[in-house]
Design a protein that fits this description.
Blueprint (H helix, E strand, L loop, with lengths): L9 H14 L3 H21 L4 H14 L9 H10 L5 H33 L1
Helix pairs in contact: 1-2, 1-4, 4-5
Length: 123
Amino acid sequence: MIASNKKDDKVEYEILGEVAKEIYKDPYRISVLVETTKEYVEKIINIKSLNIDSLIKEIDREIRKNPRYITKINIRHLKKFLVSSENTDKETHLLQLRIIEYFKNELRYYNGRKEKRKRLRRR
């Protein structure tokens, strides 16, 4: 969400810090999440060695390898970044909405698979 904004915005990193504190209680893990995110954003915006599409594909691959990662995706957290992007261009806002929709679909897909496995185990 931060990288889709095409600019390095301190407000978004403040939001990221707040979200990280909601996810983790350990200051070290909070710091790792924030710093790792900054590195990815740097690669996408400034270095151009990565783009949004390839990052989302990489996230998808990681989720497929480690389905428990899906539990870390929280749409409410992602929407917090939309608030800070209200003053951005429409293209960026639409991209962020599409990213949120993509993750909503991923959540539905993986939660549906989990429910199906539960039903099969009950038989």
